[in-house]
Design brief:
Elements lengths: L23 H8 L23 E4 L35 E2 L3 E10 L2 E8 L5 E8 L3 H19 L7 H6 L3 E7 L2 E7 L5 H7 L7 H20 L2 E2 L8 E3 L4 E6 L4 E6 L4 E3 L6 E2 L16 H4 L7 H16 L9 H12 L4 H6 L6 E2 L2 E2 L6 H9 L12 H13 L10 H4 L16 H4 L8
Antiparallel strand pairs: 1-10, 2-3, 3-4, 4-5, 5-7, 6-7, 8-13, 9-12, 10-11, 14-15
Helix pairs in contact: 5-7, 7-11, 8-10
Length: 442
């Protein structure tokens, strides 16, 4: 299951007990989601048809009490861990005489994320990430804290307010009896989970435009400050508010959701890497992994740009661009969609086992070859409309999916792309503040 490979803060700002009907290509993806080697690396095209709709609004509400805890709750009788290293806690327990546990938002290999009442923030609700009492996960949490602190400390006067709205805010962190705990702002569904809950109905072109602009701004800020995220994917892009309107599609005899606000935040900095730090050989979750990473040619900021290109395709179509779990097949899909891998990259890679006489060693007549041939096609053939804005989006995606990292579109240039010309002034507000020259790498 795609959601069952927990890899940090992104997984669990929100509940994950959803079970919508899924298309076959998603079942395969979610059952076989590849586990990257550690917490730190974490890891049908639809035709346009006119639909008759009946619309109504929907807004989930919370009935959780915000009353202050009783004295009997302010101190646990004992602090115990389960056999996997999770902190044993329940609703009503209070940590640090501050965080009253309300419910569990999510659980993973790294630990759990709890919805809590923060009694030092006026009783507001926060997401408290409680790391297992296991050294490798604690060390990964310390690295994430370091990145988030460096981001936060550069804006003490809230001068660059737009920054705070695009990267998740860390409020506090502490060590609770061997468990690293991080307090975050409480966000809503991830862009992937909303898609999943909506039967993988893709986002509209206008929604894709606004989310794309925010993601490019947020990641440009990281790159400007010598930081690569390395794990960008729809799960790690969260809506600030995932309230939606519901429409009934008479033709398909189903209800469909439209998110009211496409304001998003980039989360999960557990695998973020500064330019001067050691770069792991393999980064990114499989489906969003750049070719230079697969070929072990070294990576830097452009690997994030490749991931964004894959994300935008998924928002637009509702399914993954590279649906595979094998390196050779992944490269074959790239060639089918984007054209041949450049000869320079083939000559330079140590992964010569994937090539023969300067070309990808791939048997198109095999079952795997048939799968790739039937499920992949040249990128522009995925267009849902011949309208100019759709072609502009695919021009942007193509520029982000350049094989050669040095030729791949830089995010500073992506923000000037014609696809964003029709972005509303209010949607792009704050971009000048965001693009200040601020160095957080020291």
């Amino acid at each position: 299951d795609r959601d069952r490979e927990p890899h940090g803060a992104a997984e669990s700002y929100y509940p994950r007990d959803f079970s919508p009907n899924m298309y076959d290509y998603r079942r395969g993806r979610e059952r076989e989601r590849e586990r990257d080697e550690s917490y730190r690396r974490k890891g049908s095209r639809r035709k346009h048809k006119r639909r008759r709709r009946r619309t109504r609004s929907y807004s989930p509400s919370s009935s959780v009490s915000t009353a202050r805890p009783d004295d009997s709750r302010t101190r646990a009788l004992s602090v115990r861990d389960d056999e996997e290293g999770h902190l044993i806690c329940r609703s009503g327990d209070v940590l640090q005489e501050r965080y009253e546990i309300v419910s569990t938002l999510g659980e993973g290999t790294f630990g759990r994320v709890m919805r809590c009442i923060d009694h030092r923030r006026g009783g507001s609700h926060v997401a408290l990430k409680i790391i297992k009492n296991v050294e490798k996960y604690k060390e990964a949490a310390r690295l994430e804290i370091n990145v988030l602190e460096k981001i936060n400390e550069k804006d003490p006067d809230n001068k660059y307010w737009f920054t705070c709205f695009l990267c998740v805010q860390m409020y506090d962190w502490f060590d609770y009896h061997g468990h690293m705990c991080i307090s975050f702002e409480l966000l809503a569904l991830s862009t992937f989970d909303f898609l999943k809950e909506n039967n993988y109905l893709p986002y509209s072109i206008g929604q894709v435009r606004h989310m794309a602009y925010q993601i490019c701004l947020a990641v440009k800020f990281l790159h400007d400050n010598k930081l690569t995220h390395t794990d960008l994917k729809p799960e790690n892009i969260l809506f600030v508010n995932s309230d939606f309107t519901m429409s009934y599609n008479v033709e398909k005899k189903r209800e469909e959701r439209t998110v009211k606000s496409t304001a998003v935040r980039v989360v999960d900095f557990g695998s973020a890497t500064f330019d001067h730090e050691h770069h792991s050989t393999i980064v990114s979750t499989r489906h969003y992994r750049a070719p230079e990473v697969i070929l072990e040619l070294g990576w830097s900021h452009p690997c994030d740009v490749w991931s964004i290109g894959c994300i935008l395709f998924e928002y637009y179509l509702g399914f993954t661009l590279f649906q595979t779990h094998d390196n050779r097949e992944h490269l074959a899909m790239m060639e089918r969609i984007l054209g041949p891998v450049p000869s320079r990259m083939i000559r330079k890679t140590r992964k010569q086992k994937y090539f023969y006489r300067g070309r990808l060693d791939w048997d198109e007549s095999s079952s795997a070859g048939k799968y790739v041939r039937e499920n992949c096609k040249p990128l522009r053939r995925y267009l849902l409309s011949e309208a100019e804005e759709h072609h502009q989006l695919f021009d942007l995606i193509e520029s982000m999916l350049e094989y050669e990292p040095s030729k791949r579109l830089a995010l500073a240039d992506s923000l000037k792309h014609p696809f964003f010309e029709n972005l509303g002034i209010g949607e792009a507000a704050g971009s000048k503040n965001w693009e200040g020259n601020r160095d957080i790498s020291r």
